């Protein structure tokens, strides 16, 4: 099985699992999944978030997802419990499709690490 085929199958399985759990079966998009990862990483589940907090949650998720690739490094939790990361290496310029594949791969790897999927 090619790497692309395996990623596609794992991604579809992950979208099904998360969509059934969080959106009554309606497929979650990439941004929604990134948001969920941000909430997971913050650990504050049962509350409403303001627009700027939602963007910060997505930033947390992206940093966490790209940390294993060497782009970010966790620094500290602030007094409110929000994680902070520092840039270790700038992301290379990527086309939209390349960005999407990188993020999907990082998300799949995140959920493999969390043992939600194999």
Describe this structure in words.
By secondary structure, the protein is mainly α. The chain is built from four helices and two strands; from the N terminus they run αααββα. A two-stranded antiparallel sheet has the order 1-2. A hairpin with a 5-residue loop joins strand 1 (72-77) and strand 2 (83-87). The longest helix has 20 residues, at 3-22. The model has no long low-confidence stretch (mean pLDDT 94).
Descriptive terms for the model:
118 residues, mainly alpha, two-stranded antiparallel sheet, 57% helix
Terminus-to-terminus distance:
15 Å
| Biggest sheet architecture | 2 strands, antiparallel
- SSE order: HHHEEH
How large, in whole angstroms, is the Cα Rg?
15 Å
Low-confidence residue ranges? none
Give a quick precis of the structure.
The chain is mainly alpha-helical and 118 residues long.
How do the helices and strands line up, and which of them pair or pack?
Elements lengths: L2 H20 L7 H13 L8 H16 L5 E6 L5 E5 L8 H18 L5
Antiparallel strand pairs: 1-2
């Amino acid at each position: 099985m090619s790497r692309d085929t395996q990623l596609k199958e794992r991604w579809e399985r992950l979208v099904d699992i998360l969509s059934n759990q969080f959106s009554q079966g309606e497929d979650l998009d990439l941004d929604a999944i990134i948001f969920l990862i941000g909430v997971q990483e913050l650990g504050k589940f049962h509350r409403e978030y303001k627009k700027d907090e939602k963007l910060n949650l997505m930033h947390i998720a992206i940093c966490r997802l790209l940390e294993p690739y060497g782009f970010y490094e966790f620094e500290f939790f602030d007094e409110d419990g929000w994680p902070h990361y520092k840039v270790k290496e700038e992301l290379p310029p990527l086309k939209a499709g390349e960005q999407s594949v990188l993020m999907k791969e990082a998300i799949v790897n995140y959920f493999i690490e969390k043992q939600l999927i194999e």
